[in-house]
Each structure stands twice: as C-alpha cells, then as structure tokens.
Design brief:
It is built from 9 helices and 19 strands. With 383 residues, the chain is of the alpha/beta class. The strands form 4 sheets. The chain has a 12-stranded mixed sheet. It has a 3-stranded mixed sheet with strand order 17-18-19, sandwiched between helices. Strand 8 and strand 9 form a beta hairpin.
Length: 383
Amino acid sequence: MSLQIFVVQIYDYFLNLQANNFKSGNFTNFFKLRTMEIHFNDLNTIPIFATNPFEKKVIQFVQEWFSDTTTVSVQTSGSTGVPKVFEVEKKKMRYSAEMTCRFLELKHEDSALLCLPVEYISGKMMIVRSIERKLRLHITEPSLHPLQNLETEIDFCAMTTLQVEHSLDKIHLIKKLIIGGAAVSEALKKKINEKLLQPTTGNQQPTTIVYETYGMSETLSHIALKEIFPNEQQYFQLFQGVEISQDPRGCLTINAPQLNSEILQTNDIIELKNTQEFRFLGRADHIINSGGAKIYPEQLEAMVKKVIPNEVVFLGIPDERLGQKLTLVIEGTKSVVLNEKLSNIHYQPKFHQPKEIVFVEKIPRTPNGKVNRRALLDFIQNS
C-alpha cells in the first residue's frame, strides 16, 4: 500500500451561461476554484499541483511525511516564550493523531478541513490525522474567514478562536469542531450557543459538537478536550496515556512519554479534580502582584467578557506604590453604552477592580492568534 492523492477542484457553475461564452473566451464567470481535496485512502501516488503558496506548503509537508526521514521540523508560536524550531519524531505525531481520532471517533473516509498554517504543530497535526485515519482532507488557505466558501458539511475541523469569531454563520456545517490557540472566552461561547441553537429548516436539532483544546507545541497539539457545546463542561478531559500532577506552585506537570520523552513543567496554574480532569486557572507568569495581592488576570478577563463583547486584557503596569497597577485594556472605542456596562461589574474582592482602564484600537497577537501580552505591555508603557 502507498498513498493515493486525488485533487478535487470544486467549481461554481452558472446555469444560464451559454456555450458561446466559451468560444469567446469568457470563462471568468463560469467557474471559480474553491478548494483542494486530498483523499488519503489508497496506494498509487499521482501528481498534484498547488494553485497557491499555502497548497504548495501542504504538498511539501505530505512529501516530507512519506520520506525516509524519522523527524519533521515544527515551529512554536512564541506566545509563551521565544519562537523556536525543533525536531519531532514522526512516531510521536502518529500517536498524538491516534489519540485525537479515537477521542472524537473519527472514521475512514470522514471529511476534514485544514485552515491552519502548516508551519505550526496545529496545521501539521491536521494533516497527520488525515493521513493516519485516511480522511478526505479539504484544504483552504488560512484566514479569518476560512468557512466563507463552505457549502457542504464537514466531519472534523480545527480552528482558532478568531477564526470561529468570524465564521459563526457557517460553524453549523462542522460536525466536530475543536478550538485552540487561546482560551475560548465567555463571550464567544455565548455567540456559539446562540448561533447553533437558532431554528433551522425543519426545526432539526443541532448536530455540531464544539470542544475547547488544551495543549502546546511540545505536546504535539492538544492532550485534553473540553466540550463547550451542546454541553458545557467545566473540566478538561485528558487523553489516555497522559498523566498530570501539580508542582508546589500549583502549576501543571505533564508526563506523556509517547508524545515527549521529557516531563513537561508548565506555568499553567490548574485545579486538579482527579487524575483525568483539570481546570485551567491562569498562567504563573501572568500573575499580577498589586499591593501584595496575587491576581489571576485570566479569571478577571473571563468575568468581564461575560458583560462586554470586546476583547479585554488585564495587565500589571509597574507602579512605585503598588508594585504593579492593575490595568484593564479594552480593544475598541470608548462609548457611553460600554461605560455603563463596565460600571455594573462588581469586582470581588475589591482589589480586583482595575485602577485604570485603557482603550486601544487593536490588541497585538502572535501569528497564530494568541494575545501577545508582552507586546501589549510594551505598547501601553510607551504610549
């Protein structure tokens, strides 16, 4: 057995177009290339041709995967440290792919959609899952609107929070959607629920299941999932073969030898329910120490996002008296309506109330969509 790859070019046909349009060379409105599709289901390899730089990168990775090399290069996002490139064993990526496919009960010939950059582990693992489970992989160039041309149902897709935010009108076409890159805000959860619970033709019940992921490049994408629609779970569910514990700070320690030969020590503060379930509370390196009180910004951000739709970030700005001044940064423009909503937020305890509120046009993000707190802090301090 080897790989058989079919490239399917999907076209928009216009019923009223006459044959003389072809004779006159007027092809523009007759068809439009929509997506590339790869079937990982058989042996013979046939040539495939990229129509854009992203498809070329996908093809290059597929060729690399089926080469004699035992490792592939993976780039980190740089959201929790300096971006770096490291080598990953293919057998460990296969194990990761199998864990996800087993958890989500994906079957041979199910359809999947790739809309994430293949430089990062998130995009690479979508391809590996498709190869290992022999899925039909649809490929669309990463953007904020990856579903804009989607017209048929897809069994499985991974997206970032920003992509979901801009694709709410189409997520009902995804049967199993996993969201990563950043924590799913309360505001986004609400939007997902409202969209998927809207009445449909024939009053059919929604079939989409949405999960939030927990993982990192070093764990080869996610090691745990948490359902957020139609049920909203409070704790991440670990995959089989992964063991976790806490260090003295309360931070998560990961032991997953099939994914990484090293025991991984994170800066993620967690609540450990049992050996298979945990809840993320915040990052130790994000803790704000204001007047001697330790404040977890992620918890405050989740609370504020239940009240206003804007992206928000809590920062600790250096302060001579307090050490760090708790500052709320809001993406967008100040308004009477927004101020009224903010004034109705009751912070408990009182030191959780921000000392200052700053509005910015755009909150900086890393290439894969995560909030870049360091860049935002630098911007605020230099403004």
